[in-house]
Amino acid sequence: KYTLTTLSRLDDQKNVELLIKSVIFLNKNNKKTISLQILGDGELEKKFKYQYKNNKFITLIGWKKNPFPYLLNTKIYLLISKYEGFGYSIIEAMALGKPVIASDVDYGPWEIIRKNKFGLLTDNTIENISETISTMLIKKNFYKYKRQSIIRSIDFDQTKLKNQYLSLFKN
Prior knowledge:
Layout: E1 2-7, H1 16-28, E2 34-39, H2 45-51, E3 58-60, H3 68-72, E4 76-79, H4 88-95, E5 100-103, H5 108-113, E6 120-122, H6 126-137, H7 139-154, H8 158-170
Parallel strand pairs: 1-2, 1-4, 2-3, 4-5, 5-6
Helix pairs in contact: 1-6, 4-7
């Protein structure tokens, strides 16, 4: 069994329903069980709790002040959005050595993942998201992106970033 995780506001922009449908689709065509735990709340929370209450692959956890225990126990972190700013949760997951799959949208995820160098980008369709999850679960890919996640997260270390900003102001 594989557990995937997303930290997300439950609204249209964050596209969580597409991710849910992708995981359900993937389980129909996969020998291993893949579950999705969703941390977050928002306007779609009641709808999702009602719609997926009997689905063994989907767990709606709600908002958590400290999401790290959930991230520590996940195989892959996912951020599937219609559009995204920086995507700080990607960096948090990477710092824990979690491989990341994110939507191939302008800015945030694209800048962090760098054309599949530090994680995998996917188009926002059920088929593409499912295929990208399957690709990431291949052992050699999983361990490659696990290592790459840690390497990339170091680029966003607070001390390192502070020193870069200070050097900009000094010059």
